[in-house]
Amino acid sequence: MAPLTAALCLPFGGSRWGARISVAGAALVQALALALAARVLAAGPVVAAHGWLQADALGALLACVAGGVGLSATWYARSYMAHQEQGHDAAGWTAGRFDALFHLLLGSLVVASLANNLGLMWVGIEASTLSSALLVGYYRRPGAVEAAWKYLILCSVGITFALFATVLLYYSGIGRFAVRSAGLQWTTLRDLAPVLEPRFVRLAFLFALVGYGTKAGLAPMHTWLPDAHSQAPTPVSALLSAALLATALGALMRFHSIAVRCVGPHFSENLLLIFGLLSMGVAVPFLLVQSDYKRLLAYSSVEHTGFVALAVGLGSPLALLGGLFHLVTHALGKALAFLVGGSLKSAMGTARMDRWSGVIESSPPLGFLFAVAGVALAGLPPAALFLSEWMVLVGGLQAGKVAAVALALALLATVFAALAFHWTRMALGRPRADFRDPLPADSHRPLWLLAGALVVLGVWLPEPVRRLLSQAAAVIKP
């Protein structure tokens, strides 16, 4: 309720109080998500609202991701949006309305993460589409409006497929539910999975793969993602890429877990393997030739989302653990990359990478953060994404899927080469004489927290985090 309450209050607050309410609301969401995760580790799943909501390990993990990224982006947005609205016409939109929509998006992601009822989960994902579409088109420029409509239409078509998947899954258990309303409860469907109708379960997973896969940015349903990420305000891009894609993948994993228990692992795992490798392969050429920084990060999100799908498709316990860890580490790395990129874009007046040079010399603090983001997204140590990718690849070898691992490794090497080329050219070279970061130093504090988390998780995985990841993996595949 915290983000929804904040969303109701923010349109009526002044800029000073609105910023405070916004950050306080996001901080409360993250604190509650962490407390919920601790409760799940101590006592198991937490059920609320007569079974409509349930916080298991997977839901708590996704809520922590959404809360952490939401807090970082909201904190950063206080200064960033104030600067942006000095030079852009937001068609009369106040900062309060932006914050309200942002918290509606954050709240819908938390609801979708913690929903035990598949219908409520669908409503949460759909609500995120509506609120984020308004945020994508926030500046009301022609490109932003076009991107918002493209996002709204494609994701609405996708979410319709997800609705069909939900109906088919309910239909597969007709006559097997003690109470009709329990037929949409994920826990009920999971427990009854061995006696559900296999044909409808297979069809439901196919529809979910297309529907929630569209929302997650899996290829070939990813075409909305580069436009939306490049046109949205930077804090919105960070939340979309880091948290929204993770939440959609979590919804797909719920359907996968039922399919595994009903028809065996091979059907859904093979499909996830194919779509994961396809997403990585589709992203590679666009990463090589991209000239816009935010579009580069968008195609990087397609690649990393595909890698998580690949991890689930590999199916071994270590690959699942690594895939969920990669979900977390990618969220941290991509949020950092978008937010530090927002500062650099403000300082240089453009998002074109061929006009960025000498970042490290121009601003050593921003240059260091920029370098950490690049190292993380390229999958280099000591950043945590190196560890998560290593776990997935070793897990794939343990599963005996050598060809898939070899292809993934080749694609990862190409991604590394592309990002190394772009980052080296931007970070080094002759500094621009007109470089000036207009944002105050305190707006960079959440960036330092993200960078610190990436490095710490790369060298040390705390026991509570490892246990939460292990339990979340067991939710997906027992």
Characterization of the model:
This protein has helices at residues 2-9, 15-43, 57-87, 95-114, 118-136, 142-171, 186-191, 198-216, 224-231, 234-263, 265-289, 293-314, 317-348, 359-362, 364-377, 384-398, 402-427, 445-459, 463-476, and strands at residues 46-48, 53-55. It has a two-stranded antiparallel ribbon. The longest helix has 32 residues, at 317-348. With 478 residues, it is mainly alpha-helical. The protein contains 19 helices and two strands. It has one domain. Helices cover 77% and strands 1% of the residues. One of its GO terms (molecular function) is oxidoreductase activity.
Question: Tags for this entry?
Answer:
single chain; 478 residues; mainly alpha; two-stranded antiparallel sheet; 19 helices; 2 strands; 1% strand; globular
